[in-house]
Amino acid sequence: MSNSSRRKWLRAGLGAAAGASGIAVAARLAERYGLVPPDAGNIYGPGATLTYATQRLLTDGTMAREFTRSQISARPFANGKPLQEAEFLRLQEGGFSEWRLSVDGLVARPATFTLAELKSMPARSQITQLACEEGWSFIAEWTGVVLSDVLAAVGILPQARFVTYQSFQKRWRNSVDMADALHPQTLVIYGMNGGDLPTGHGGPLRMRVPRQLGYKSVKYINRLTVTDGLQLPARARGYAWYAGI
Ligand SMILES: Nc1nc2c(c(=O)[nH]1)N[C@H]1C(S)=C(S)[C@@H](COP(=O)(O)O)O[C@H]1N2
Ligand SMILES: [Mo]
What we know:
The protein is α+β, with helices and mostly antiparallel strands. Helix content is 28%, strand content 23%. It is globular. Mean pLDDT is 85; it is low at 14-22.
């Protein structure tokens, strides 16, 4: 079967299964075709599987909405307190010249990037909405490097299935699958609304995944690891791993 007819068939199958005999059948179908999110064995169970599977089938390749400059929020909300750790303040005082993004795991050439090196790569800006699961949101222009360019620079191996990203704030770690990792709107950002990314919003470096809820856009990232599976917990604070919007 060709890819697109397989997709059509799967989509019809999932819809029929959901309608006819409930989501358990759809979940089994999804499992057979590798559409089960890695955290499905939890309280969300088959419901989350169906959401993930149908969203993957229906929205793969689709884009998060982009806005115009006039729609940028006047007062974006920086969630959380400013970082107080001595090490962070020291790095900040040095203009973050010592900040590093290391990239390891299932890559051909593990590497470490400075901010200057990332800024020398082709830049992309997008005006998208950051939506928190708690109900608030704002629109901003985000500037950075397309994650797939960073991955191309280190060469991802064929077994790669997820990209895990780690924050300077150790408990903030999350990951995306390859569909989102290679998506053209998934950025590693260092700029916001025309200036440097403020530390309140995750500066100097942040993951920006506009097709998912705000908590997947982890701030203060310093490490990417390419994996073939997921070491849970991949959830932040008990939130679902897949947070498509
Ligand atoms: N390192 C880190 N990343 C984080 C968070 C955080 O507290 N620490 N909060 C998350 C949540 S829940 C949301 S909604 C957004 C908020 O982004 P903002 O501070 O730019 O509004 O960042 C996400 N990334
Ligand atoms: Mo959030």
